[in-house]
Every structure is written in structure tokens, then in C-alpha cells.
Amino acid sequence: MMTDIGNSRPGVQAFEAALEKRDTRVAEFEVLANSPLRRIQHFLHANPTAVPAIVLLIGVAAFSLIVGSRFLSAFNLSLIIQQVTIIGVIGIAQTLIVITAGIDLSVGAIMVLSSVIMGKLAITMGLPAPVALMAGIAAGAGCGAVNGMLVTRFKLPPFIVTLGTWSIFFALNLWYSASETIRSQEVAGAAPFLQWLGTPVDVYGARFTYGSFFLLALVGLVWFVLNRTAFGRHLYAVGDDPDAARLAGIRTDRVLFTVYVVAGIICALGAWTLIGRIGSISPQAGQTANLDSITAVVVGGASLFGGRGSIIGTLIGALIVGVFRNGLALSGVDVLWQEFTVGCLIIFAVALDQWIRKVSA
């Protein structure tokens, strides 16, 4: 039987007594961020290039102790930079795709096809080398547009799309080149401009190439776009949460299509770098470029789930791969175990990314 507390004085007194006995404790939540491990996790989440930078420093220090002065010589360090130039350029293209939560397995095929087109037009057809270069860049943009159209218009998964176009572009490459290599002497005689990025430059005992400086310039340009322009912010937003980005007014399909076209152009610039590096134009070159680019991106701290990654991290990731391969080679380690080590680095990077992502979960 209920008591009318509005009209009964005893009922009012009972109600006030109940209020005085109420529990005044406030709910408290345990703050896990104060633990040292949690602080490290937050720091690494906020600074995605910290881990690859630390790994690079550890690698350099370790191999300097194991190998000695040969590893730290100016010539050897500059050789490492030359060796990772192509991986770095293609890695930039791959980074843009990975930030959008995609992956491009056709970057190597686009690069080689573009190089073959440049060589055929300049050497076989006799077109001016700058014209052949622009045609190769246009071909790279076209290949990227095909990937972008299939991903945005037909809503196909990037992994499946680029796996298919990798086979298509590679087949076109073999057909157009007739599986023939254009020798370095022929390129130097008819179109030396295509080898220009391979021109050596001696700096205090170190030997660089114009390709190395071209890579740094490209890194600076793409870094500026990602960090100082609206397009860069849209790119990260699409990779982090495409639905939220769409609701915020971002034209996600246009952003994705543009990214694939830009990645194709960068792959074509990688073709120019490739010609400068090896001198000749071979349809069989760059066979490992796809995996090498993914390795550089993942080891460099980018997340395969999208929304996280940096160009600086990719450059550091490429240098890590170069340092480990070079250091292991100088240590007399077999090529088999060099690849084993790189595979371990990839697994470590992905596992670390999963752990860091728990911060934002």
C-alpha cells in the first residue's frame, strides 16, 4: 500500500530520511593510461614514425659493431641509399593507397610497363626522350585510372582488382616489348635523358645519383600534400572511416580515384628511376617491386587498415630493408636468410601495428 507523501506528513519525513541515507559515492574508472606500457602505446600511436626510426638506428648500430668500418664507410652508406631509391619511389605510391585502407599489387607492373613504353618510343620509334617520358607517365596515369575506376565505380576490393590488373599489365608489358631487353648502350646512344637519374654525384667520398635527390624531392612534395592540404586530410579521413567522411561532405569516390591515378604517375616516375638505376630497359625488371613496396610501407609504420601512415615512415622503412640486406650481405649471410630476416620484420611490424591500434579501439 503506497503512502501519499504529498498529503501525509509522516510520508514526507520518511522520504527525507531516505534521501539522507542515499549513497553519495561517485563512480570511478581506473585510468590505465598512467602505466608505463600504456604511455608507450599512446606515444607510438601519436608518433607512427618513432618505431621505424628506432629500428633503423638499432640496425645501423648493430651492423656497425658486427661488420665494422666497412658498413659505416661513406661509400657503403651511399650505396644503400642508391639501392633503396626505386623501393622508396614505389613505396610512396603504395603508401597513398594503403592510407585509404587499400593495397596495390600492380605498382611493379605499372612501373615496368611504363619503362618499356618510354624505351620503345625513344629508341625504337625515335621520338625525343622527353616526349617518350611524358608518354610513359601518361601510361602510368592510365593504369592507375583503370584501378581507380574498378574500385570506385564497380565497388570491387582493391586487393582483387590490383591482383588482376597486375597480370594484365605484366602481359601487356611482355607483348609490347616482345620480351626483348633494350641494352644500356642503345639507351645511352639514342636517349641518354632516360638514364639521367642514374648520373653519379660524388660528395665527400660518398657516391649518390640524381635519383637519390629525386626521391628526396618527391618525398618532400608528397609530405606537403598529405600534411598541408585539404586533399591530404581527406585522404586520411577516407581511410579511417569512409562512411563518416562521406557524411562530412567528402566525395570519397573522387578521392579514391584521384589517389590511384596519382599512384600510377608516381610508378611511372619510378620507371624513370629504374632506367637510371640499371641503365637498360628490361621487361623482366622490378619483379620484387610489389612486395618490396609493401614491406617498406608496413615496416615504416603505416597501417594496412587505413587512416594511418606517413611518407617519412615509408622512406625510413625502405632504408631499414636496405640496411638489413646490406649488413647481412657484408656479414656473409646467405640471401635465403636475408629474405627470412625481412619476413620477420614484416610480421613484427604488423603485430606492433595491431597492438598500437588498441589505443583507439
Structural notes for this entry:
With 361 residues, the chain is mainly alpha-helical. It has a single domain, classed as ABC transporter involved in vitamin B12 uptake, BtuC, CATH 1.10.3470. Helices cover 71% and strands 2% of the residues. The chain has a two-stranded antiparallel sheet. Helix 7 (107-124) runs parallel beside helix 9 (158-177) and helix 15 crosses helix 16 (311-330). The longest helix is centred in the last third of the chain and has 27 residues, at 252-278.
How are the secondary structure elements laid out?
Blueprint: H1 9-20, H2 36-46, H3 50-66, H4 69-72, H5 74-83, H6 85-99, H7 107-124, H8 129-152, H9 158-177, H10 184-190, E1 200-203, E2 206-209, H11 210-228, H12 230-240, H13 242-247, H14 252-278, H15 289-299, H16 311-330, H17 335-357
Antiparallel strand pairs: 1-2
Order of helices and strands: HHHHHHHHHHEEHHHHHHH
Which percent range fits the helix content?
Answer: over 70%
Number of domains: 1
Structural class, please? mainly alpha
Indicate the CATH architecture: Orthogonal Bundle
Strand order of the largest sheet: 1-2
What gap, in angstroms, lies between the N and C termini? 50 Å
Task: Report the radius of gyration as a whole number of Å.
Answer: 27 Å
